[in-house]
Design a protein that fits this description.
Elements: H1 10-13, E1 21-22, H2 24-31, H3 35-44, E2 51-54, E3 57-61, H4 62-71, H5 77-91
Antiparallel strand pairs: 1-3, 2-3
Length: 104
């Protein structure tokens, strides 16, 4: 039996260059959603903006998450319902069906 404590991988202990950047799990926790919700929003072009500095590495700036949460604030349920109705109507627009009637 070894008396040495279990070591964590060096990657897990690496210091951050900038504490303002969060990985998807940290960002999800910060705004109160699941990492899967953030992944879904990324593919749908929704949610807070994010950065892909290289390859598969995804990061969220904490200050952007805070601003995104502030922008979502409402004063009443009717205000939230109205905002959601606008979002839903925009989301359900048909994608270019080949009808070019909108082109002059």
């Amino acid at each position: 039996m070894s008396s040495h404590p279990k070591r964590t991988p060096a990657v897990a202990r690496a210091p951050r260059d900038n504490a303002d950047w969060l990985n998807p799990a940290e960002a999800a926790h910060f705004i109160g959603v699941t990492p899967q919700a953030l992944a879904t929003w990324r593919t749908q072009g929704k949610g807070p903006t994010w950065s892909r500095p290289s390859g598969r590495l995804i990061r969220y700036r904490k200050s952007v998450l805070e601003a995104w949460l502030l922008a979502a604030e409402v004063h009443s349920t009717s205000e939230a319902d109205a905002r959601d109705a606008v979002t839903l109507s925009v989301d359900k627009r048909p994608v270019n069906s080949g009808d070019r009637s909108d082109v002059a």
